[in-house]
Amino acid sequence: MTSNGRRDGLTFAPPIDTAELQRFLAEDMPEGDITTEAIVGPQQRAQGELLAKAPLVLAGIETFGAVFRLLDSGAEIDADAADGEEIAPGRVLVRVRALARSLLAGERTALNLVQRMSGIATMTRRFVHAVEGTGASILDTRKTMPGLRALDKYAVRVGGGRNHRLNLSHAVLIKENHIRMAGGVDAALMAVAPLRGHAAWIEIEVTNQKELRSALELAPNVILLDNMTPELTAESVRLVRQHNSGRAILTEASGGITLANVRQYAEAGVDWISVGALTHSTPSVDLSFEIEPE
Prior knowledge:
Helices cover 40% and strands 20% of the residues. The protein is of the alpha/beta class. The strands form four sheets. Strands 8-13-12-11-10-9 form a six-stranded parallel β-sheet. Strands 5-7-3-14 form a four-stranded antiparallel β-sheet, covered by helices on one side. Helix 9 (230-243) links the parallel strand 11 and strand 12 (250-254). The longest helix has 31 residues, at 100-130. The chain is elongated.
């Protein structure tokens, strides 16, 4: 396969979990593809072309090919585009030559994955362009599809975004429910103090400036300004900057952020803007896989 996952000189490592792909295929054909097996001979070969039908940012081209290699180890995969490229409608992205049964059986699984991943990368790129020049980074959240987190988060990176914590074991993020259970911002931050230096970072969510001032006294690595207006966000960022001395505290905006208002939050001065919609409600892009006898 000739795609190399490059964008702007960066090399991405697509997370291809063979066992997961096999599980996806087994879900779709627990006892084989009965339609294809009735119509197509076992030795018949075919060629398929993956075609863009709308503008998109490509993500998942290696994953697409990996599906067919699982079904036919001799599959020949020739990619004409790489992850991260902005693609115009009508462009052929990859050609696959393999046993016809393999192409027909793997078509939907492979398409579903590359369409979802490219949809996430495309939406992420829009958010990244919307905040260009402000210094703010666009991040994802844990609102990913179970079983697809690695692919979803990879697609965000391809689109130019950054990954927030990968899982609950990666970093400390104290949210509203944790604060209630602990009995307050101070108590929650003191409880996680022994994790400093072990977790990737310590972060706490605040919803008002009283909570913000309490959090500042215990100096977490990141303060998440949750569901604040752009104006209140800017005021909160100023408070954090005034307090910062020696140890810089990063700020993150989250909640209710859309393409229409993300620039306002970026101009409020936050370091991170997390957008759950990148992975939980972004539509798949329009691609087709056209198969012809070889």
